[in-house]
Design brief:
The protein has 248 residues and is of the alpha/beta class. The chain has one domain. The protein contains 12 helices and 8 strands. The strands form 2 sheets. Strands 4-3-8-7-5-6 form a 6-stranded parallel β-sheet, with helices on both faces. A hairpin with a 2-residue loop joins strand 1 and strand 2. Helix 2 crosses helix 3. The N and C termini lie close together (11 Å). The protein binds uridine-5'-diphosphate (UDP). The site of uridine-5'-diphosphate has 13 residues, from helix 9. The site of uridine-5'-diphosphate (UDP) has 13 residues, from helix 9.
């Protein structure tokens, strides 16, 4: 694993095998480890939010989640980094659970969505050890109930699909108290696993055009696309005018 940065925000060059072995070590040693998936939007959010940027710096792993970030790193630093999206990690953790009995908890999305995601994972991965689930719509008042439910379920892997940056902020604040080894922000993945949102077809994914597919099926996310344009402009500015590169 090698720490690099894009527009001053940390991103790691990490292979799938390394992700698996870092997760296994955290579970075996019972050490808390926050895994963050970094996309172009995350980079832009972190540049505006110092607290978010700092928690990204302190995470165990910052995995490159988007073609945009991978291309930016290649363009600015001439380094190829593996791309692993949050949604791709879920089957990997499910397979680890089948093999080693690791307990997985799903936290996030609407009640019917997360319940359906659990059912689908159980069907796709017979023997997967799902120790519980909770929807992601809670308020400060019932926050303790949420934490108690997760603690009682004693997961080895907590998948939090609350959207960014909420999921990472909530996990980093509560990880030690929860006593969960591996905590992973998975964004809207439960909606995809539950079959509520279509994943971009392979054609779009291969070309790194998942954002375009999302723009077509969810046009109301227009604001996101302006942020993506801003990301590209910031990369060009960094290339031609220069900027600070941390790590790598
Ligand atoms: N969500 C949630 N609690 C909230 C807000 C959002 O559980 O308070 C869920 C929402 O239902 C969806 C996910 O968080 O399943 C966010 O998905 P989105 O695609 O917007 O996030 P991204 O993958 O872009 O981070």
């Amino acid at each position: 694993m090698k720490k690099l940065s894009v527009l001053g925000v940390r991103v790691d060059s990490v292979s799938l095998e390394e992700v698996k072995s870092i997760a296994t070590a955290a579970i075996e040693k019972k050490e808390p480890a926050l895994f963050i998936s970094l996309g172009s939007l995350t980079v832009m959010q972190a540049r505006k939010d110092q607290i978010y940027k700092t928690l990204i710096e302190q995470a165990k792993l910052v995995i490159c989640d988007s073609a945009g970030v991978a291309k930016a790193v290649k363009y600015l630093q001439r380094t190829e980094i593996p791309r692993l999206s949050g949604i791709d990690l879920i089957p990997v953790f499910a397979a680890m659970s089948v093999k080693k009995g690791y307990r997985i908890f799903l936290f996030g999305a609407k009640e019917s969505v997360v319940a359906e995601a659990c059912r689908n994972l159980t069907v796709t991965f017979p023997g997967v050890n799902i120790c519980g689930y909770l929807n992601g719509y809670f308020d400060i008042i019932n926050q303790n109930d949420v934490k108690e439910t997760i603690k009682r379920s004693a997961p080895d892997i907590l998948l939090a699909g609350l959207g960014q940056p909420l999921q990472e902020k909530w996990l980093s604040t509560n990880l030690i108290e929860l006593g969960v080894p591996v905590a992973v922000g998975v964004g809207g993945s439960f909606d995809v696993i539950a079959g509520r949102i279509k994943r971009a077809p392979l054609f779009f994914r291969r070309l790194g055009l998942e954002w375009l597919f999302r723009m077509i099926i969810e046009p109301w996310r227009l604001r996101r696309n302006f942020v993506l344009i801003n990301f590209i402009l910031s990369i060009l500015k960094e290339k031609f005018i220069g900027g600070k590169q941390k790590y790598g």
